Amino acid sequence: MYLNDFHIIKNDATIISPEQGSRFAKEISNDFNPLHNPDSKRFCVPGDLLFALTLARFGLSENMTFNYTGMVGKGVELVFPESVDNEFAIKDSNEKEYLNIQRKGETTTDMAFIEAFSRAYVAFSGHSFPHLLVPLMKKHNVMINPDRPMVIYENMAFTFDDLNVSKPSLKLVNTSLDVAGKRGTVRIEFDVLDSERKVGSGFKTMVLSGLREYNQEKVDGLIELYENSKVNYTK
Questions:
Q1: Torsion angle of the four alpha carbons 91, 17, 155, 26, in this order, in degrees rounded to the nearest 10
Q2: Rounded mean pLDDT, 143-170
Q3: Number of independent structural domains in the chain
Q4: If you count DSSP H runs as helices and E runs as strands, how many of each does the chain have, helices first?
Q5: Above 80 in pLDDT, residue 143?
Q6: What is the end-to-end Cα distance of the chain in Å, rounded?
Q7: Structural domain for 136, as ranges
Q8: To which H or E segment does residue 47 belong?
Q9: Looking at residue 163, which CATH number applies to its domain?
Q10: Which residue from 9, 225, 229, 235 has the least number of CB within 10 angstroms?
Q11: How far apart are alpha carbons 26 and 20 in whole angstroms?
């Protein structure tokens, strides 16, 4: 499984180092959010890595919802439950919860399918900035704090019509931004395809904090920093 390079198991706990989390974000998700830089004081493990690990451990169900309830920082020892029902949580060794999962319908443990969907989703998810977020911010005349950019994963969910899928891919359907003062919630909706056939749908939401009036020059600066990080990493 491709996830073996991005975590270790120690005394029944799952540990994701800043380097592993950063590599997953950059190499699998193509996500250069500074929160995933290993030297960031606010480092957090990519939510998409927790999502992928959960599918690999417990299978993929026809209907699943993932609610992110905490940020996994450096040195956190995650404890995945030994067995699960229709609702379960990923916690640390101190019982602090980071991810709540709800599921129903049939479940598959076909690792080829799970990995294909996992890779397709995290690649899709990682393209939020600047491709999707900047047009939304411009439309609503708001922007994140350029000195302390905070874009936090809130939740995601998907529904499959059936699990007889060979080559899953994701197609963007709609994006929206709901602004409430200095806080905004972005919703990204997608269809799941098998070749050209629609087999499911889903959405992802993120929280933007510290919103202020849109400034194109400052947004251009954020984009430049983001793109430079990508170029420097791939050199």
A1: -170
A2: 94
A3: 1
A4: 5, 12
A5: yes
A6: 26
A7: 2-234
A8: helix 47-58
A9: 3.10.129
A10: 235
A11: 10
